[in-house]
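## Example pair
The file below holds two records. Each record gives the amino-acid sequence first, followed by its structure token line.
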Amino acid sequence: MKKILLSILFLSGFFPVFAQNNVGQIKATIPAASEIKLPMDTIDTGDKFIKIVLYDNHSWDYYDIGRPVIDSTNMFDEYWSTTVLHAYKDYPSSLIPEEVDLRLVDSLHGYCPPITGVVRSGYQFRRTREHQGIDIPLHTGDTVRAAFDGVVRYIGYTKETGGYGNLVVIRHPNGLETYYGHLSRHLVAADEMVKAGEVIGLGGSTGRSTGPHLHFEVRYKGQTFDPSRLIDFETGALRDTVITLHNHYFSIYSHYGQTDEESKAAAGRIVYTVRSGDTLGGIAAKYGTTVNNICKLNGISSKKILRIGERLIVR
């Protein structure tokens, strides 16, 4: 596949060839049609962003795939840790503004869907816990790619991450972090710079998983929000080049597709954790509402048997 792709790119003229001159400098040249050479393979160099291309006439050239332009100084000065899973766990949420504009892509920073497919489980409260990302089925060994340019902040294994299984966390220049969970294998290391579209791991079913899938999370200052606000995972398309993050997006009940009014209402919901001896009638009376209201909000029957630890929206 690599050989075929390179052949197509070079023959179509999308990429220049980077050739070495007599003094060892790298310069870009566009070959004339009569001078086109067929690329047969690539060889890694000491720099992963520079490859050596081998041609069918036994010649070779350097090819620069493009190094991400990242000011790592600003990325490392705030809550940076390669050993702590959630680096922002002690960051005061009160410091996050009511809304903030984040540029996702521009002429210097790219994007690539980490994987495409139908979202099997979305950003929602699931059973007795918050599911703070989205799940997309895959086959074990499928390639998982970095969504945006960035630097790998954390590499973790199942014994360290619990439900995430083998995990990669990448911090991006705009302050977002993306999480890639349940991997069968990591292909990058902590503190490594990565380019959007670079393969960072192989899909799997490690951690708390009932089958091979990618668990993908997006966080800002440690706060999660629905990844579907950024990406249409079925098509792989980025929804916009800029996202305006509102504070109410950080509620597990706020989803892509809601109006701002609906999202604010969802974020302001009161949620009750069921205790021993609780009944729907008793909970309704405690919060000044009705059993019918609670059933409607939670999509349940008035005859439902409550489980200790279960969470119910009461208002």
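Second record, same layout:
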Amino acid sequence: MERLISLVYISSERSPFSAKELDELLANSRERNKVNGITGVMLYASGSFMQYLEGPKTAVQQTFERIKADRRHFGIMELICMDIPKREFKDWSMGFTTKEYPGFDEIKLEYALATAQPEMPHSPSHASLLLQNFWATNQAA
């Protein structure tokens, strides 16, 4: 079995996404992720995305290459890419939340992020802290 990795990146939209475009992006991501064995969460606020992907190394890397080639966003920056012992978002083909779009149960996200247990300085929960910080910063905006 191929080893699991997690990858966290941030990016900015080239032009504002409508609610319909966000719905389509999310539906397409969920469908592809199920096929490729990828789980994770995507946060969107004030024109910026932060996404946490986890799954088989090859699938995550191929997904990230496809994301980098997507001309709808720019300034894509990989923050973390590392081996993980288990999934943090095993039940989510792609959890999603945004302050502009009421499409996700935020309590679930807060619970999942709050229950991640730190194991080492760059453990999967370090990625969860990045997600929490992104969300908290953009909630205030």
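Notes on the second record: The longest strand covers residues 73-83. Residues 45 and 98 are 5 Å apart (CA to CA).
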